[in-house]
Amino acid sequence: MDAIAATGLAPVVPPEVQTIQAGPAASISDITSFQGSLSAAGSGGIAGVGGPDQLGPAMKAMFSQLEKVNGEARSVSAYAQTASAKGANMTPGEVVNLTMRCHEFMFHCQLTSNIANRTSDGIQQLFRQQS
Fold first, then answer.
1. Is the dihedral of CA 56, 60, 62, 66 positive or negative?
2. In sequence order, what DSSP letters do the residues of 44-64 get, joined into one string?
3. Number of structural domains found in the chain
4. Residue numbers of the domain that contains 37
5. How many CA atoms lie within 13 A of 33 on its CB side?
6. Are residues 33 and 63 in the same domain?
7. What is the dihedral sign for C-alpha 70, 114, 54, 37?
8. Are residues 72 and 111 part of one domain?
């Protein structure tokens, strides 16, 4: 039997060491300055710098629209699955309702796609004008 297993103690794992990779031309003062900047940014030393989890209002609005489209897709899927799980044929009203939901979903998909394409075209035009 292993000596560590006999004592019931888990092996000691060394703490994770953070390392910085630098190019061959970097000096010790460059590396120290960079490490200090990283530490200051990580501890909130720089005002106005948001973390990766913070999104701007435009990005939040875009993602909320995409989530709305995803929610509609789930809703249409759930409605269709309940109708097929029922085992009986759908009534004409249920068929019309499902068709209407599908058309509404596709309309929102096309609208979201058009907005994204026009936004992309506008940004491309802005960059072309600035160069």
1. positive
2. T-STT---TT---HHHHHHHH
3. 2
4. 13-42
5. 5
6. no
7. positive
8. yes
**Residue 4 domain-assigned?**
no
Which pTM does this prediction carry? 0.51
27-73 pLDDT per residue, tens? 777 777 777 777 777 665 555 555 556 778 877 888 888 888 889 99
Q: CA-CA distance, 29 to 27, in Å (whole number)?
A: 5
Are residue 83 and residue 107 in the same domain, yes or no?
A: yes
| Residues 101/79, Cβ–Cβ less than 8 Å | yes
Token look-up 């913070």 returns: 54
Taking all residues of the chain, what is their mean pLDDT, rounded to a whole number?
78
DSSP 120: H
Q: Is residue 47 part of a domain?
A: no
